[in-house]
Amino acid sequence: MTHPFRTHNCAALTAAEVGQTVRLSGWVHRKRDHGGVLFVDLRDHYGITQIVADEDSPALELLDSLRVESVVTIDGEVKRRTEETINPNLPTGEIEVFARSATVQSRADELPMPVAGEQDYPEDIRLKYRFLDLRRESVHANMMLRSSVISSLRRRMTDQGFTEIQTPILTASSPEGARDYLVPSRVHPGKFYALPQAPQMFKQLLMVAGFDRYFQIAPCFRDEDARADRSPGEFYQLDFEMSFVTQDDVFAAIEPVLAGVFEEFANGRSVTPAGSFPRIPYAEAMLKYGSDKPDLRNPLLISDVTAHFETSGFGLFEKIVGTGGVVRAIPAPSTADKSRKFFDDMNDWARSEGHAGLGYVTRKGGEFGGPIAKNHGPENMAKICEELGLGPDDGLFFAAGKADQAAKLAGAARTRVGEQLELIEQGCFKFCWIVDFPMFEYDEDLKKIDFSHNPFSMPQGEMETLENQNPLEILAWQYDIVCNGVELSSGAIRNHRPDIMYKAFEIAGYSKEDVDANFSGMINAFKYGAPPHGGSAPGVDRIVMLLADEPNIREVVVFPMNQKAEDLMMGAPSEVSARQLRELNIRLVEPQKG
Fold first, then answer.
1. For 356-380, b where at least 16 C-beta lie within 10 A, e where not — what string?
2. Which of 46, 189, 371, 372 is the most buried (most CB within 10 A)?
3. pLDDT value, residue 444
4. SS3 per-residue string spanning 117-128
5. What does the alpha-carbon distance between residue 73 and residue 7 come to, in Å, rounded to a whole number?
6. How many Å apart are CA 294 and CA 499, to the nearest integer?
C-alpha cells in the first residue's frame, strides 16, 4: 500500500527512478506557465523537485489555481529532462515528475512576504511571519547548520570524557551580573524564582559533588538590550567545567573541540589548529589591538609612542602626555595615493563616535604632511616611523588621551583602517586566548577598588598575593576565547577556597556576612571539600553566526525576538488576566509618565 503522502522526498529522485510512479508532498515553491505547460517547483525540507503538467494532465487545472506556498500531494511519473533543460545545481536536476493527479492538503492565502528568492525584507515582517521566513533557503540552511554544529559539539565533548548534565531553569536571583528574568512563586507569595543567567554556581557545585567533567548546551537568560552578537532574552552556550585542572588543562580540552567543529563546517576556510591558539595577555591586547577581543585577521598593530611626545612642538600631545595621558599610533600602510580626504574622513568618523578626534600624519615618498608632522618636525617623525618599521609611503593615525580612552579609540581606528584599506584577511577563522586579566580595578564613580570582571576567579598567587601585593597589580586565572574579533566566552580557574574568597571580597569592600548572604550555596559547599576546578562556556549562537558568515545573531536563532525583546509572532510579552495576577499575589503598578 502506498504511503498517503509520499514515496520519496523532494531531493531523492534521480535518473535511476525514471519511469517509476511516485508520490511527493510539499509546498508550491514557484510556478511558471509556458503556454499550456505548467512547471511547478515542489519544495519540502529536503529539497526541490520540478513538477510538469500540460493539457494532458488531469492535475493542470488544480495546480494552475493554487497560490505559491500551498501544500499539495502529487502523483506522477518520473521522466528524464531533455539535455538542454538539465539543472546541474539541483540534486533532482536530471528529472521531472509528470503530474497524473494532485491533492490539495492546505491552500495558502496571499503571502505577506515572499519565500522564493533571497531578497531583503523588513525585519518586523520577517519576525512576525517567522514560520514563512524559515521556509527561505538561506534561513532554513542556517537552522540546519545550527543543529549540525550542536550535534558535533556534543559528540566532541563526550569523546573528551565530559558528562552531559542538565541544571535547573528555575533558581535563585543573583545580585551579580546582568538583570534577572524573575518568575513569581504562587505557593510562596511575594517570593520569586529567577531564570539562570548561566549555570555558573550549579556547574561549580557539580565539581564539588565529584563529577569531574561536566558539560551541557545550556540555555541562559539575561534581561539585556539586543546587540548584533547578542540576542535579547535568551541564548545558548557550550557550558563546561573540569576538576583538578590548571589553565593549560582547560585550554587543551576545549581547543580540539572548537577547532574541530570549525574545521568540520569551514567549507574551505582555514582554522587556527588546536594546540596553537595564541595566548595574549590582557595588557598586551589592550596596547597592540586596543581591545580584549582582537581580530587577528587584521595585520595592523597599535604602538605606544608616548615617549616621543614628552617634549614636542605639537603642543596638544605634549600637554596630554604631561598630564598623565598617552599617545597611541595606528599605521596606515601604502596610503601615499590616498587624498587628504581619506584622513579627514577618519577624523570625522572618530568625532562621530564621541571622541575628540583622530590625529594623522601623511607620508608620500618619505615626505611628511599634516599639522602634527609640521609641528613635531620631520626628523622626530622619521624616528617614530623607523621605530615602528614604517616605509616612505605609510601614513599614521594617532589616538591621544587617558590610557583607557586612547586604547578604545585606537582599537576602533585599527579596525576601521583595516576595513577601509581592505587589509582584513578573508576565508579564515583566527582564534586566540586573552589571558592574565586584572583581578581588581579602581571604580572612579564609587571611589573604591572593585572586581574588574569575575569575582569568583582564583587570583594568581592565591592568598599570598592578596595579602602582600597592590590589588591593582594582581592578575587572575581568567581567560577569554576570541575568534575573528568575536568573544566566544569568558572562563576562569575558580576560587575554590573559602578563606581566599573572603579575602578577595574584603579587598573589594564586601564583608564576610555579605558573602555568606549573597553566595551561601557556593561558599557553604566549599567548606565541605572542593577540588580545584575551572571551565568556560563558548556561545553556541556566536559560533553558528561565525560559521554561517552572518552579521546578526538573529539570523541563526530559530525564533528570535526583536531589538525591543518582543516576540512579534507570538505576541510576547503580553498582558495576563486579573485572575492570574491574583493567584500570584501580584498587583501591577503603572509606570510613571514622563
1. ebbbbbbbeeeebebebbeebeeeb
2. 372
3. 84
4. CCCCCCHHHHHH
5. 11
6. 35
CB atoms within 10 A of CB 95: 22
3-class DSSP state of 97: strand
pLDDT tens digits, 419-439: 999 999 999 999 999 999 999
Q: What is the pLDDT of residue 334?
A: 95
pLDDT tens-digit profile of 80-128?
999 999 999 999 999 999 999 999 999 999 999 999 988 888 999 999 9
- Written as one letter, the residue type at 429 is F
Contact 242, 213 (CB under 8 A): yes
| Residue 175 confidence (pLDDT) | 63
* CA torsion angle 14 16 22 27 (round to 10): 0
Q: Nine-digit cell at 268? A: 574551505
Q: Exposed (0-12), middle (13-18) or buried (19+): which is 421, by Cβ within 10 Å?
A: middle
| Contacts for 25 with CB less than 8 Å, ≥ 6 apart | 5, 6, 44, 71, 72, 73, 74, 105
d(CA 196, CA 182): 10
| 57 SS3 class | coil
Give CA–CA dist 492/521, Å, rounded. Answer: 19
The continuous run of DSSP H or E covering 279 comes out as strand 279-281
Report the alpha-carbon distance of residue 317 to residue 135 in Å, rounded: 57
What is the distance between the alpha carbons of residues 468 and 448, in angstroms, rounded to a whole number? 19
Q: What is the pLDDT at residue 230?
A: 76
Burial pattern 501-537, b for ≥16 Cβ within 10 A else e, equals bbbbbebbebeeeebeeebeebbebbeeebebbbbbb
The residues of the chain scoring below 70 in pLDDT are: 1, 175-177, 594
How far CA 275 is from CA of 257, 295, 425, in Å, comes to: 11, 19, 22
Q: Output the pLDDT for position 94.
A: 96
Query: Residue 546 has which C-alpha cell?
Result: 561565525
537 contacts 492 by C-beta, under 8 angstroms: no
Sign of the CA dihedral with 269 first, then 274, 275, and 279 last: positive
Q: Which residues of 156-190 are buried (b: 16+ CB within 10 A; e: fewer)?
A: bbeebebeebebeeebeebeeeeebbeebeeeeee
Of 482, 513, 434, 494, residue with least CA distance to 295? 482
**49: which residues sit within 8 A by CB, 6+ positions away?**
10, 11, 13, 24, 26, 41, 42, 92, 95, 96, 97
Q: According to the model, what pLDDT value does residue 339 have?
A: 86
Beta bridge partners of 79: 96
Cβ distance 34 to 71 under 8 Å?
no
Burial label, 257 (beta-carbon count in 10 A; 0-12, 13-18, 19+):
buried
